[in-house]
Amino acid sequence: MYHNALWVSLANGLCCTPFWWSYTEWINDSVVTNQIRHFANFVSDIDFAHLNLEPSKIDAGSCDAWAMKSDKLIFGWVVNPRVSVARESFTISGLKDGSYEVRIYHAWRGQYLDAVMAQCKDGQLIVKIPELTRTQDHAAYIGNDVAFKIVPK
Prior knowledge:
The chain is of the alpha+beta class and 153 residues long. The protein is 16% helix and 34% strand.
């Protein structure tokens, strides 16, 4: 719940993020510290003071999704609490046609996947969330949610 509250608050345009002040066996320092660290890593390069952000139209099929956009940056969060978001896609509408750099962020691990380029056509940018697979003898699971940043090129 703490993880989800952080990410949905950011992606739907709230002017603050939640913080639980009581610790329990479910919300303790190991949970809070890691979540805040991963969240801080994601937002550290967003210039909130100088971006004219507004809610963005986003459609993610069977997933829930929220996004904020400006002319310089789009960021958001896609979640499916029932199953993985692997191989799901989402569409951001109302953008200028052209090339965009897409960076998917593994919110539970605090790591970006490799950036990919995507083309916006007819005002719609479609992004497919990858399915992570085994690499170097380690299994990589995308999980129930991802955050993302999209930058026009």
